[in-house]
Amino acid sequence: MEGEPSQNKNASSAQSKKYRSVRFGLALVVLLAMPVGHYLWLETEPDQFRPLFVVEKPGIGAVRALSGPTVGTEHRQVQTPEFVKGIYMTANTAGYKKRFNQLIDLVDRTEINALVIDIKGHNGHLAFTPESPELKPYASENIYLGDLKEFTAPLKERGIYLIARQFVFQDPQFAEAHPEWAVANTWGGLWRDYRGIPWLDAASKDVWRYNVQIAREVFDGGFDEIQFDYIRFPSDGNIKAAEFPVWDGTTPKSEVMAGFFAYLDKELRVKNGIPISVDLFGLTMWQHDYDLNIGQLLRDALPHFDFISPMVYPSHYPPGFNGYANPAEHPYEVVYENLVRGQAVYEQINQAAVDQGMDPPPLATIRPWIQDFDLGAVYTPERVRAQFTATEDGGGSGWLIWNARNVYTEGAFELAPAD
């Protein structure tokens, strides 16, 4: 207040600074802890977002209904679009002829140019017919995709960029087949998270090799890119009861993950020229020095992948995140601010190279997962499109849309140009 004595001003200023420090400290604690718990809690979507159906028989006829050559078609990769616009498809959907063809029609009619398809899902079963004898025991009873070359050929004729989504360390089937490489429970048997799902030891080189073998076969079968998901340590369970057969418990989790990132890079990109990407928690764009206690750091992933796909679903951020009472109602702001904040990591890596007299290294581009499901807010065409705009404005190289039921808001997409 004008005319206030200077002594009172100084005392007031000091008190104000102290209050701001305490408030900032509390906010930092909330930012560090609350979003992580919120993300882990929402990682499995509610029942209303689960697939519409489950195919009980192999769905290998789904793609064969499409026009175009299948067997005997020369294997070729579809060039990565300059800006990827993709939707997610479960293996179940790919095996259900009517629904599959509806989604392909959506791709044909709109700006969508890419499909993300599960080739190894949450249960660890391979959704295709493996050629390698080592992989055959892990194929699903319902081979939804069938022979990969037959599955991918008609889609490639359409110029659709195919991304194979591959679960890694959450793999119940492989864990039960190889408990020597899985997280064990101190009370006996396999350790399981709160959903009852066992996990593999992220430090196991045998697990690493298994996943690389799958990726190579899938790429040879016609997919254009391999996207790795669940690359992390388990978290949502009684971690105190978890025993790791390989991880020593003292090596930082982020160091283990960084080693796996480098391994994938060497074995797939360097040796075989296979484009690879990784799904990370959206908070890796926000928390640059904290690995969320699961081993994920953006700076460790950027040098080893072609694309990073952070899951920046606005609904998955807690109330109050970055000042938004309900982040789900602010799709543009949440997506944009995450991408912009992540750019600081690029700057740090590039500056470190310059300080050492080296050229900045090639780094992955950001291609976020965004939402098209009603959680926290109704996702209208305008809200879905707001995320498209945010991705472009934030410097992303594309977007991938998540809906666990594979039901998408057609009004959000621009129509493809008429021939």
Structural summary, described in words:
By secondary structure, the chain is of the alpha/beta class. It has one domain (about 15-410): Glycosidases (TIM Barrel, Alpha-Beta Barrel). The protein is built from ten helices and eleven strands. It has a nine-stranded parallel sheet with strand order 9-8-7-5-3-2-1-11-10. A two-stranded antiparallel sheet has the order 4-6. The longest helix has about 35 residues, at about 5-40. The radius of gyration is 23 Å and the shape is globular. The protein starts with 5 loop residues before the first helix and ends in a 17-residue tail after the last strand. The model is unreliable at about 1-35 and about 45-75 (pLDDT under 50).
CATH topology: TIM Barrel
Number of domains: 1
Q: Helix segment count?
A: 10
> Structural class per helix/strand content?
alpha/beta
Evaluate the radius of gyration: 23 Å
- Give the overall shape: globular
Spans of at least 5 consecutive residues with low confidence = 1-33, 44-74
Q: Care to count the β-strands?
A: 11
CATH class: Alpha Beta
CATH superfamily: Glycosidases
What is the first-to-last residue Cα distance?
A: 69 Å
CATH architecture: Alpha-Beta Barrel
Into which percentage range does the β-strand content fall? 5-15%
User: Residue share in helices?
Assistant: 25-40%
Mean pLDDT: 86
Secondary-structure element pattern, one letter each = HEHHEHEHEHEEHEHEHEEHE
The largest sheet is: 9 strands, parallel
